Amino acid sequence: MPGTLYLVPTPIGNLSDISDRCRAVLADADFIAAEDTRVSLRLLNALDLKKELVSYHEHNKARSGPAIVKRLESGETCALVTDAGTPAISDPGEDLVRLCIDAGITVCAIPGPCALVTALCASGLPTGRFCFEGFLPMQKKERAVRLAELKSETRTMIFYEAPHRLGQTLEALAAAFGGGRRISLCRELTKLYEEYTRTTLAGALELLQTAPPRGEYVLVVEGAQPVQNAPDIQAAVRQVQSLMRDGLSRKAAAKHVAEQTGIKKNELYEASLAINETGEA
Ligand code: SAM
Description:
The protein is of the alpha/beta class and 281 residues long.
């Protein structure tokens, strides 16, 4: 019987955020697949665990992925960890999950630390509907295309970014969305210098002039204001006419429909008169 691939989230800064369940899965796994085995070895040492570590990252995944699947097929259990946070979110874990599912291997995701959720929760921006955009494309042209697609996105947007690209990313965001759009710069989450800067895109760019970016960042950006659909004047006039057929005066019918649609009552009155004169409904 094949084994199981466990996706094990690890702390994004504060070691105490490792859960009992994650610790137990790491302890029970036959081996651990890690993005950077040196980083994960430090975690295992801190947890007082000794376990075989195999390397699985962006540059060896084509070779390492099938080798891990083979071991799982032979009945072994694997825990996948990345440098920090939830595996498969903006890291190559996604590909291993796909390989395992295609091979009929059970994949079990354990809940735990995740930078995007942590940032969103305390951003102060709407959390009811949001979209995760991960890292924006590095190439200027591709990035501009992606941002143009997002210009009218009304949900709160979440981006990951490396500190050395923060300035150019904020500039690109401000150029695409306008400097007045609200942003929460979420820095060094769960760490000693954790900081949420709640400002606008223009404000964030100004801040960067005085304080160069340090540490890790999640950017939570307000969505676009929803476009109000213009009221349908013709439909409203038809409503006025229908009320008039039911016996209401033109004035009363226009007033009633105006209250329902937000269209000015004089406008409705005049429009219904004009239609009467031209005979068009
Ligand atoms: N899979 C991880 C997760 O979702 O939690 C994220 C991996 S991604 C390769 C790394 C990015 O996550 C960083 O560039 C940064 O944008 C964000 N990140 C990770 N830890 C963070 C922290 N402590 N504070 C702020 N951002 C963090």
